[in-house]
């Protein structure tokens, strides 16, 4: 566990360094490169987890967006709404039976990330930081103080203490960055939902990580699962 934590920290520092380098060139350039890596990496890993059905649905959503962009936007919003409901269903130990809808919902999620190209860089990086604060505080508090585990059925090792501390830290951080408290709280909840959603997909595929490109983290989707809903939602604030 110690080696995994060290790998996780070193990888995070490396990613931070790359991000700062890209930002030093141009904030718009940094946003666009990060988004391209997110979208392409998430699509490739989702295809591996969900097979060819995911790519078929993604192609369908992209074609629909070309002819009916507003309808594709609605689909992405509905997908995150259903995923948010699924998150709470897991909290209360209910079952929404979304197995057959995984590929379609994930295709809408990946398409939704494309819309973040329209977000100003400052807002883009604020959304990512809110998700990162959620991830870091939830991980550390759960690791060292977590006692009540199994709160989310798709993530049995994650604890109630981790979720609570991550939620509070992320909500406060977002408010300090200029958002309304309810907005930052909603983003924090959506970050949790994104993480739980990715865990559900991996659990259905019977794998621990979505990939292996990021030591200590796993794949691209493992790193950005909580970013995706925040980037989609913050564009409406």
Model description:
This protein is mostly helical and 237 residues long. The chain has one domain. Helices cover 76% and strands 0% of the residues. The protein is globular, with a radius of gyration of 17 Å. The relative contact order is 0.15.
Query: Count the helices. How many?
Result: 10
Which percent range describes the beta-strand content?
under 5%
Instruction: Determine the fraction of residues in helical runs and give it as a percent range.
Output: over 70%
Overall geometry comes to globular
State the separation between the terminal residues, measured CA to CA: 39 Å
Number of domains: 1
Mean pLDDT: 88
Please give the largest β-sheet. none
Order of helices and strands: HHHHHHHHHH
Structural class: mainly alpha
Rg, alpha carbons: 17 Å
Unreliable sequence segments: none
By DSSP, the count of extended strands is: 0
Short description:
With 237 residues, this protein is mainly alpha-helical. The protein is 76% helix and 0% strand.
What attributes characterize this protein structure?
single chain; 237 residues; mainly alpha; globular
What topology emerges from the helices and strands here?
Elements: H1 2-25, H2 27-50, H3 52-67, H4 69-91, H5 102-114, H6 121-145, H7 160-176, H8 181-205, H9 220-224, H10 227-234
Helix pairs in contact: 1-2, 2-3, 2-5, 2-6, 3-4, 3-5, 4-5, 4-8, 5-10, 6-7, 6-8, 6-10, 7-8, 8-10
